[in-house]
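Tokens as discussed.
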């Protein structure tokens, strides 16, 4: 393995000069820096992570708490894209990522204990049961934390603007003439609460009376349940003209239910999704939905977490809201 001393001997400078050049210190001339960087590359030099950890008191390792209760794992389109942009941004800043759970081989430990075992510099909590004891241990611990789509008073949170998303969708469907609107909401969570509040607020603003029995409890990422609930809605005497889904993936169940009943989207019933995943635009007709900016959510989460680690005295714990945009498909009919 090539060492700093090997580079210093080849280039005729001190080990300290090589170290400063490779670590970006300003008291090394640009010409010297370029010469030493070139030599290091030619000689196949790689920095030793353990040595760097001793020097900086950091491991340059970030923990990821991710547990998708729907069982889709990293195939969950929304969180997969968020984590991908988080990973890319973290790596560009010199950090690796490690998934944190309660098992290390055959050894059982709490999530917080796993964080300590891996000696992570910070943790992102992306998808999990935010009310669990494991989460509270991490939140109340001494490790920098950023959460996705859930707010704790003492931690930085990156939130998609769910209220604005629902407002834009309601405004769109009402402009298309719809006033009989049902909503199959996701399972109980901070996101579901904000979307439901946004739904009610937008309907109130537009003068729409919401039928209590048109608000149904579904699940995120569960097309089987939306299939059943859509059939139940469309079998009623008093039917809605438009149904909002928990998310785009669940909308697949609604499309199947409509087709099985001998009906058509949007001629007989309009369907609206949420998330803007690529799959939503492969449906026929394309799904009208709200595109969440997953790239910006992941990038912002990574930058905030790195800043909390590297600049703790000047980085404020805050709630950062990321806007999305309406994605107009063909699943909402104009009934004006």
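Sequence:
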């Amino acid at each position: 393995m090539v060492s700093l001393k090997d580079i210093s001997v080849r280039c005729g400078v001190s080990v300290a000069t090589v170290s400063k050049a490779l670590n970006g210190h300003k008291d090394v001339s640009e010409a010297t820096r370029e010469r030493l960087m070139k030599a290091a590359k030619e000689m196949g030099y790689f920095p030793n992570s353990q040595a760097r950890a001793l020097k900086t008191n950091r491991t340059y390792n970030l923990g990821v708490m991710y547990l998708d209760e729907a069982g889709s794992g990293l195939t969950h389109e929304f969180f997969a894209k968020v984590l991908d942009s988080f990973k890319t941004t973290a790596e560009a800043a010199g950090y690796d990522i490690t998934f944190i759970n309660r098992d290390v081989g055959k050894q059982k430990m709490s999530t917080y204990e796993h964080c300590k075992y891996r000696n992570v510099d910070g943790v992102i909590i992306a998808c999990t049961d935010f009310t669990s004891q494991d989460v509270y241990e991490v939140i109340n611990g001494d490790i920098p934390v950023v959460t996705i789509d859930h707010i704790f008073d003492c931690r930085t949170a990156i939130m998609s603007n769910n209220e604005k998303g629902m407002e834009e969708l309601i405004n769109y469907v009402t402009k298309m003439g719809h006033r009989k609107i049902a909503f199959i909401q996701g399972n109980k969570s901070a996101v579901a609460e904000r979307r439901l509040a946004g739904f009610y607020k937008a309907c109130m603003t537009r003068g729409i009376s919401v039928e209590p029995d048109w608000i149904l409890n579904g699940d995120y990422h569960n097309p089987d349940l939306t299939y059943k609930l859509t059939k139940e809605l469309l079998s009623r005497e008093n039917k809605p003209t438009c149904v909002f889904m928990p998310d785009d993936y669940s909308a697949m169940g609604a499309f199947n239910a409509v087709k099985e009943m001998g009906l058509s989207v949007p001629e007989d019933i309009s369907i609206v999704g949420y998330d803007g995943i690529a799959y939503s635009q492969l449906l026929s007709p394309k799904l009208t939905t709200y595109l969440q900016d997953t790239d910006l959510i992941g990038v912002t989460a990574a930058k905030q977490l790195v800043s909390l680690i590297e600049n703790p005295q000047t980085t404020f714990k805050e709630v950062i809201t990321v806007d999305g945009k309406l994605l107009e498909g063909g699943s909402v009919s104009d009934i004006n």
